[in-house]
Amino acid sequence: MPATLYDKLWDEHLVQTEDTNESLIYIDRHYLHEVTSPQAFEGLRHKNLRPWRLDANVATPDHNVPTDRGDAFNAESIKDQVAKIQVVELDKNCNNFGIHQFDITSNKQGIVHVMGPELGYTLPGMTIVCGDSHTSTHGAFGCLAMGIGTSEVEHVLATQCLKITKLKNMQINFNGSLQKGVTSKDIVLHLIKLIGTAGGTGHAIEFSGSYIKSASMESRMTICNMAIEAGAKVGLVEVDAITLDYVKKHSNLSDLIFSQACEYWETLKSDSDANFDQTINIDVSKIKPQVTWGTSPEMTIDFDAEIPSQEDVDESNHENLLLAKAYMGLDGSKSLQDLSFDKIFIGSCTNSRIEDLRDAASAIEGKKISKDITEAIVVPGSGMVKAQAEDEGLDKIFIEAGFLWRDPGCSMCLGMNPDQLKPYERCASTSNRNFEGRQGNLGRTHLMSPLMAALTAINGKITDPS
Amino acid sequence: MSNSIIKGIVATFDRDNIDTDQIIPTEYLKSIKKFGFGDFLFDGWRYLDEGRLDMTADDRSKNNDFILNKEPYTNAKILLTRDNFGCGSSREHAVWALRDFGFKSVIASSFGDIFYNNCFKNSVLPIKLSKEQINHLFEVSNFSPVSFEIDLLKKELKYKDDSSYMFDVKDSLLDRIINNLDDVDMTLKHEKHIQAFEQKRRNQRPWLFDYSN
């Protein structure tokens, strides 16, 4: 029977299906971080259990770590005493249970979804889970990857399996070539605008089409990363030469093992006659740079379009629109160009990879950030990204323009560390969620690409990238 | 102990897409405990000041217009809302906060996938109904406080003495709530089967094992 990529990955990892229709799926890779793991380790201790298979697990602290660490920093140096407890607890748990961790002092530490692939821990065809919804990122490698809750983190540690029911299949074909100034971030924001934040609920989304076939691994990761913002906990891209080239560079598999694995990896694509429950075709050549105006990622418009008013939406959506506009302080603003920005954040598991930093740097080289911007920060996704950017001299471009060049972590994407918005500050952000209070209590977030965020830093306002 | 009946005051949240950052902001995710999140539920809407993990509801300046700060909703057991409740992050803290506040059930037209799963691990019952049914429940609840009664065995939501809706939920998930089942214990009954599967995989896909960098 013809199968989708998701079907194939499901069958490959299916341990058993119970009468209840729930299935046990074998997990190849489990990433852990400091925020969603402590209660899971506590659960293991309570039940007197050890992790099922140690080498399936890789840990790193990322969510609440400070990003102005500099040299000679360790967990004890964290000033926020509550955050420090979590980072120290991760150290203890990894040491006690024997789990491999890239700790806060490691030059490879980083956002788990940036660090994993570049260190070769993400390999095509794996099942990958992590107590973080942006685990969908790894689907870019033809992996079945999804975020899980803390009870499931404990379950995977204890049993190496996840107990779930099968999702439906959705296919999004992105065809065509991008206009100048348009990036993978704009493509995925456009999709979320189109299908809504619940559009992919209950589905695994496979991204395909001529645009995806030509896209870099970094771009594919950005798109799969935000599948969850379209409601789908799983995003996928088939394995092709671009995938294999990346894996060859980033893993340390011997040539023999690599070529053996390639035979299998090359089968990781949907059959041409596979059946999807839903298919959507999108011509990417028509997409303009996208920016969010509201408090949900679906509240997205073309950068030069008018901010919607009540007449533009169904009556059932009036309340949502009014609440979002009030929160975002948009009274009297017709378009995004009318807004003045206070802060710029370039980073997060969506957009902190080397390609993102190159994009942003290209827009600011030789320029200075606007005097209206009180703070502009660049937070590389990992120690490896940071080192590479410094090799390429990108750090100097950012610093000379007036940006702060930071150490890796999730940072202002979710404001668990000191990088936060103050009430009513408006931020141009390359992250993934513009929820109320996400970047700081009463802060106002506008999601956009690294290129658009860099231009906003220079001009203090949203501007035309072409 | 069997938990087959849920009965209590209904608090209404008339908006779509209430995300897990609204249910509990990141500040409180710094806890390493599994309990004690009730005071931080809907923190951004419930209080006028900014809180910290070491504060309690009594230390805070309350937003008296917010439903959970008004009687009798301080004792609400059932939350009624619209579309896509619990979208966003995977944080189980969102369910812990609802549970610790006292909520036993959330009724919505749809839920975020990860949130929905997390509910059943913590004895909070998510109930999906059609948009029309949700509209009707809002009409019933909007003017004065009401109580609903949910029968988990019959899968029935009684919203008036003589009116009810049947709801659909997987028996195995419901079972977790009714009988307080633990997934780890249940899965480990298949230990041998998992071991055999793993051994086969180790032979077939050797690159997945003992990998280090």
Instruction: Using the alpha-carbon principal axes, give the shape of chain B.
Output: globular
Number of strands of chain B: 7
- Runs of chain B in which pLDDT lies below 50 for 5 or more consecutive residues are none
* Multimer state: heterodimer
Largest beta-sheet characterization of chain A: 5 strands, parallel
How would the blueprint of this fold be written?
The complex is a heterodimer of chains A (466) and B (213).
Chain A: H1 5-13, E1 14-17, E2 23-26, E3 29-32, H2 38-47, E4 57-59, H3 81-97, E5 100-101, H4 112-118, E6 127-130, E7 144-147, H5 150-159, E8 161-164, E9 168-175, H6 184-195, E10 203-208, H7 210-214, H8 217-225, E11 234-236, H9 241-250, H10 255-265, E12 278-283, E13 290-292, E14 300-302, H11 318-328, E15 343-346, H12 354-364, E16 375-378, H13 383-391, H14 394-401, E17 404-405, E18 426-429, E19 444-447, H15 450-459
Parallel strand pairs in A: 3-4, 3-6, 4-5, 6-7, 9-10, 9-12, 10-11, 15-16, 15-18, 16-17, 18-19
Antiparallel strand pairs in A: 1-2, 2-8, 13-14
Chain B: E1 5-13, H1 20-23, H2 43-46, E2 78-81, H3 93-101, E3 105-108, H4 113-120, E4 125-128, H5 131-141, E5 147-151, E6 156-160, E7 163-166, H6 171-179, H7 183-188, H8 191-204
Parallel strand pairs in B: 1-2, 2-3, 3-4
Antiparallel strand pairs in B: 1-5, 5-6, 6-7
Describe it for me?
- The complex is a heterodimer of chains A (466) and B (213).
- Chain A has 466 residues and is an alpha/beta fold.
- Chain A is built from 15 helices and 19 strands.
- In chain A, the strands form five sheets. Chain A has a five-stranded parallel sheet with strand order 5-4-3-6-7. A five-stranded parallel sheet of chain A has the order 17-16-15-18-19. Chain A has a four-stranded parallel sheet with strand order 11-10-9-12.
- In chain A, β1 and β2 form a beta hairpin.
- Chain B is built from eight helices and seven strands.
- Chain B is globular, with a radius of gyration of 20 Å.
- Chain B starts with a strand and ends in a 9-residue tail after the last helix.
- The model of chain B has no long low-confidence stretch (mean pLDDT 95).
- Classes of the chains: A alpha/beta (466), B alpha/beta (213).
